[in-house]
Amino acid sequence: MSNTRKSNVYRMTGLAILSAIIIVLQVFTTFVRFGPFSITLALIPIVVGAAMYGVGAGAYLGAVFSAVVIIMCITGGDVGGFMVWSANPFMCIVMCTLKGTMAGLCAGAVYKALKEKNKLLAVIMAALVSPIVNTGIFIIGMLLFFRETLAAWAGGSDLLSYIILGLTGVNFLIELGVNMILSPVVVKIIDAVQKTTH
Q: pTM (2 decimals)?
């Protein structure tokens, strides 16, 4: 088997394993919530894939994550997501697809830009960017297309305060913390995989 073909097989196998991990993590964490939305731990395998296989792989893994989120919104597995789906199904799909895909794509781009300077810094920054992009697009989408739903959840309180303190605050901090804690582990995974594939 040629080196290129072998490399492609490793890549496809790695992406399939990471996709399965993302699906399992996202389904599991759908039932772990602080406020109306569940936490997202599936960003770690997205960062791993983006770092190991590139920007396109990051976007693909982000899209896998998005597909699971959309399914949970439609089925009511994610209660807050179901309310968003019920308010505007089309924009729910657009928002979920965009936030997940861009979280993976941006993580891959940041890692690629920094990896030659310092691999640990590249992973840390990619792990930081991923939840920021995911949560940022979610907040913008909610403000632009689901303001009435947001106002109902806020129960008359200031929308911006509700978004920061109630809707995304704790979830975002947990996601960010988990990504930061696991960053050194991600570097070790990348090094181990690169040693076995070269």
A: 0.86
